[in-house]
């Protein structure tokens, strides 16, 4: 066991776990943050998508020892705080478009969507269909067409 410190949803947290434990288990099992979902555990399904220093990443594929004290991890729980609102515009767009079916993949989908829109904005342009094609998050319920509509609507308000 060793101590690991990082910033989670805007606040410093410390955990005492083995270096090799993947961050997803630290978030879910040690810290009780359950927004990032466990689907595959091997960086394929993207159900656990969260943000690492503002960029999308999959905590099931990162060892806790590889996170530095200054690194900022944001999960769906912390997303509204990034815009100082009750809900992030992308979450509002999700509700307006009634995207979710079973809901399991949706936190990861929203986090992937926000990161993708920010990526496009950083390049000085709006999100396009090619960007949407790059989002690889799996939805077993097949909500993909509503996801695409919601991302475009959410992007317009970001
Ligand atoms: S659980 Fe992380 S990518 Fe599948
Ligand atoms: S809404 Fe059920 S897995 Fe996507």
UniProtKB/TrEMBL annotation:
Boundaries of every 2Fe-2S ferredoxin-type domain copy: 7-51
Name of this chain's protein: (2Fe-2S)-binding protein
MF terms (GO), sorted A to Z: 2 iron, 2 sulfur cluster binding; metal ion binding; oxidoreductase activity, acting on the aldehyde or oxo group of donors
InterPro entries: 2Fe-2S-bd, 2Fe-2S-bd_dom_sf, 2Fe-2S_ferredoxin-like_sf, 2Fe-2S_ferredoxin-type, Aldehyde_Oxdr_Iron-Sulfur, Beta-grasp_dom_sf
Recorded superkingdom: Bacteria
Domain [2Fe-2S]-binding, residue spans: 75-152
